[in-house]
Amino acid sequence: MPRSHLTGVFVGSRAVADGLLSVKQLRERSYRRLVQGVYADPALVLDHRLRCQGVALLLPPGTAIGGHSAAAWHGAPFAGPHDPVTVVRPSTVQWKGPREVRVHRSDLDATDVEWRDDVPVTSAVRTAWDLAALESRGTAVAAIDAMVRCGAVSQDDLSAMANAGAGRWGVARVRKAVLLVDPRAESAPESRVRVALVVADLTPVPQYEVRVAGEFVARVDLAFPEARLAIEYEGAHHFTGDQIARDDARLERLRAAGWRVIRLSASDLRDLDGVVARVRAALGL
């Protein structure tokens, strides 16, 4: 008899073939569809790693979860639950995957792959390379910032990787991204804003401590100290409960210290050119 309920992540057709589930149960019960043909217990938290676990059940030997998806295991869990899962495959493996998967063809050595949570993922250094080669510059740098910050890779690792990559596909993009990495950033949005400013020839200082006569006033996300200009990214938690009052009090302390503050939110990330223009105007450039 089929079980009353399947837990974990499973391939629907295999579960039916093994008698663990009927086609009717698969269709009528509330199993969460992760990618085409792969399902999960709805009690499991839906995030990008869970989707990767589903894709891993379909992967042929010699392939691995990579890029922005693998970064979730290396300190940069920024890919969303509905973002495509990135898979790296060598040219010797012919596999397209389900439509929810983005397949990147590239040489993949055994040393480039490690197993995490029963999922083959690219190593931290290889993940950093693929991030820089495949993703937009801001997205790539944000993820690599986080990977360096948590110790998954070092800046020396990144420099060695970039210097040894002559002739490899994407090396120019990789080298540009590596030069922008700064582990002082404490969030992906902060990294993205900083990258947009640096590319525009502006050089903010990340996580700058504002002090007056030696007394601590506040630490700001990005700062132009000589101009006493701060840029602050405010995520959703800044607009809830007591945090609003704390932020207002902090802003008043900065203003009293002679600082101006540009406050950014998620909507500003959709127009980083506009953010750069605001900062330029505030700097009188």
TrEMBL record:
Domain of life of the native organism: Bacteria
InterPro entries the record matches: DUF559 (IPR007569), Restrct_endonuc-II-like (IPR011335)
Lineage, broadest ranks: Bacteria, Bacillati, Actinomycetota, Actinomycetes, Geodermatophilales
Protein name: DUF559 domain-containing protein
Domain DUF559: 220-282
